[in-house]
Design goal:
The protein has 220 residues and is an alpha/beta fold. It has helices at 6-14, 24-31, 53-59, 75-87, 106-112, 115-118, 127-134, 173-178, 202-213, and strands spanning 48-50, 65-69, 92-96, 120-124, 139-143, 160-164, 181-183. Strand 2, helix 4 (75-87) and strand 3 (92-96) form a beta-alpha-beta unit. The two termini are 39 Å apart.
Length: 220
């Protein structure tokens, strides 16, 4: 038994919960990955609630930044964004019904490093209607490489809903049109004298934008 797992086993024994020591090969088989950290547990799935823009309007005064993921397909990116959001103290994360959108898989939960235990997660159906209604209480921003305002130019007079798109295509034209503004992270660019890199990984872009747009005191 790994030394770092002894404390967990003592807690489980005190709570009269069943646990069993297993070989690394068996843990990898049960977990579906060798990246299990030495412990595998069975837990209830985290509930994902239906998103209601009217309810979001009531949150707005206390939680002024709301990330929305629309088609972020890679569970590692989803997990990384959740970890960042939780680290920054954001209380909620919204996933849309985009067919490519990753869900709360084992991989996403593992990469989030506990972030999903802190966040309330919601599912938004019909993004166009959701954004239209959300505009009543929030400034809706769409993340877009190479176009839009830089974060420091975004007015902070209203709560912000920040929409991130698919890793390959980004946000589609209709979704961007439904936003109040596009927001972008300026880079060195691909032209002469530039870095040759045109865009960032969505989880990296999310980390930068969430940090730059988060009010100084974010609370539940």
């Amino acid at each position: 038994m790994k030394e770092e797992t002894v404390g967990y086993c003592r807690v489980l024994a005190k709570a009269r919960r069943v646990f069993r020591e297993a070989a690394p090969e068996e843990l990898a088989r049960v977990a579906g990955t060798p990246m299990h950290g030495g412990i595998v547990a069975v837990a209830r799935p985290k509930p994902v609630r239906a998103f209601d823009p009217a309810e979001a309007a009531r949150w707005a005064a206390a939680a002024r930044l709301l990330p929305i993921l629309h088609g972020v397909a890679n569970p590692h990116n989803l997990g990384a964004i959740a970890r960042t959001a939780a680290f920054l103290g954001l209380p909620r994360l919204v996933l849309t019904d985009h067919p490519a959108q990753a869900g709360l898989s084992d991989a996403a939960l593992r990469v989030a490093e506990g972030g999903f235990e802190i966040l309330d997660v919601y599912r938004a159906a019909n993004l166009a209607d959701t954004l239209r209604r959300l505009k009543e209480s929030h400034r809706v921003l769409g993340a877009a490489p190479g176009r839009g305002l830089t974060p420091e130019r975004i007015p902070r007079d209203r709560p912000i809903a920040l929409v991130f798109g698919n890793e390959e295509q980004g946000l589609d034209a209709a979704t961007l049109a439904a936003c109040d503004e596009a927001v972008t992270i300026p880079g060195a660019g691909a032209g002469p004298g530039g870095s040759g890199v045109q865009s960032l990984n969505v989880s990296v872009a999310a980390g930068i934008l969430l940090y730059m747009l988060k009010p100084p005191a974010e609370s539940r």
